[in-house]
Design a protein that fits this description.
This protein is of the alpha/beta class. It contains twelve helices and ten strands. Strand 1, helix 3 (78-90) and strand 2 form a beta-alpha-beta unit. Bound molecules: S-adenosylmethionine (SAM), 6-(5-methyl-2-OXO-imidazolidin-4-yl)-hexanoic acid and iron/sulfur cluster. Iron/sulfur cluster binds at residues 53, 55, 57, 60, 62-63, 101, 103, 133.
């Protein structure tokens, strides 16, 4: 299938706003042409470093400046990670996605430890994904050498709405990291969140940014905001299932070969709602009773749902072969001393300022 890379916002909005049944039919047809409709890839999230993040992402319970009641943790040990990965594998996951509440990766002991985690999970014959914040080209190469399969770095919204939600980094910073990952053989996982107060225009804007990347991301997570008490977005209304299905279907149509991941927010969805998302082209989920810090349906419930729908978990390395893992001592990319580069947008968001004020007054 030829992939279209010149999508415009107008074209995507037209798809998003189609009569529901037409949208579902078109998305499902494209899904069947490109994927086995009865196979769903299952990833397990592992928060290897929780909380205390210096960024101000308005949705995130892990930002240090918001007063949420999550339990923060230092970086997990390689052995702890290995034990969790084995559990994930036993429960049917083909991929482990390790998340760290970092603005960006710093070279040194902690990054070396993450590289060892990647090598360890790769040796268990599982796909390894990391989401560690911004990374340089050299860091992306070192992750690739360790055997990383995917790197997750979300655009989260349209460029315009991004500024309303995050002030401590800009959209271009996100695109730069995605570009650094693209220079390696690591696959790109990038998507976003709906339900942050954005318009349909913003949703289409985010899909334009993703679908015009060449190549398109191998996987696109669609998250429904999990509103967490203490964050600036704590009072956002829940995302309607119709919006979720529309977003999944539109993503499937504009990125036919991509794995579309039904991500955060599944605890608020019925099985019937999730089934509609799978019909509309979602073919991946995060499994396990916790996402990074918030709840997710437990594995037993998901397996029951899979059974009821006749779905099967995807085996690892079906889409792309297992990456070779190079031992640390053989790395070509060690100590290149490349400096990370980013820009700081000068604007400040009212909501974030208010949250900062609130946190000062509650000290
Ligand atoms: N710190 C790294 C970063 O920001 O890229 C990696 C971890 S961060 C928690 C990964 C992604 O989780 C975010 O980009 C966002 O899309 C998603 N996320 C965070 N909090 C969320 C929430 N409350 N609801 C839905 N998605 C959320
Ligand atoms: C993604 O798009 N969603 C996942 C994963 N990539 C890292 C994270 C969802 C986090 C939801 C909020 C939490 O549990 O802290
Ligand atoms: Fe930090 Fe990532 Fe949360 Fe933003 S989304 S506050 S960068 S952990």
């Amino acid at each position: 299938m030829t992939i279209k890379h010149d999508w415009t916002k107008e074209e995507i909005l037209e798809i998003y706003n189609k009569p529901f049944m037409d949208l579902l039919y078109e998305a499902s047809s494209i899904h069947r042409e490109n994927h086995d409709p009865n196979v769903v890839q299952v990833s397990t999230l592992l928060s290897i470093k929780t909380g205390g993040c210096p960024e101000d992402c308005g949705y995130c319970p892990q930002a240090a400046r918001y007063h949420t009641d999550i339990e923060g943790n230092d970086l997990m040990s390689v052995n702890q990670v290995k034990a969790q990965a084995l559990r994930a594998k036993a429960s049917g996951s083909s991929r482990v996605c390790m998340g760290a509440a970092w603005r960006n990766v710093k070279d040194g002991e902690e990054f070396d430890s993450v590289l060892e985690m990647v090598r360890t999970i790769n040796k268990l014959d599982m796909e390894v994904c990391c989401t560690l914040g911004m990374i340089t080209e050299n860091q992306a190469q070192r992750l690739a050498e360790a055997g990383l399969y995917a790197y997750n770095h979300n655009l989260d919204s349209s460029e315009e709405y991004y500024k309303e939600v995050i002030s401590t980094r800009g959209y271009q910073d996100r695109l730069d990291t995605i570009g650094n990952v693209r220079k390696t053989n690591v696959t790109v996982c990038s998507g976003g969140i709906i339900g942050m107060g954005e318009s349909n225009d913003d949703r289409a804007g985010m899909l334009v940014a993703l679908a015009t990347l060449s190549p398109q991301p191998e996987s696109v997570p669609i998250n429904a905001l999990v509103p967490v008490e203490g964050t600036p977005l704590e009072e956002q209304a829940p995302v309607s299932i119709w919006d979720m299905v529309r977003m999944v279907a539109t993503t499937r149509i504009v990125m036919p070969e991509t794995q579309v991941r039904l991500s955060a927010g599944r605890t608020e969805m019925s099985r019937e709602g999730q089934a509609m998302c799978f019909f509309a082209g979602a073919n991946s989920i995060f499994a396990g009773d916790k996402l990074l810090t918030t709840p997710n349906p437990d594995v037993g419930e998901d397996m029951e749902m899979f059974k009821a729908l006749g779905l099967h978990p995807q085996k690892p390395f079906v889409k792309k072969s297992k990456p070779e893992s190079v031992e640390a001592t053989e790395s070509k990319f060690l100590n290149l001393g490349e400096k990370p580069k980013w820009s700081r947008p000068s604007h400040k968001i009212e909501r974030n300022l208010e949250a900062q004020k609130k946190s000062k007054t509650s000290l």
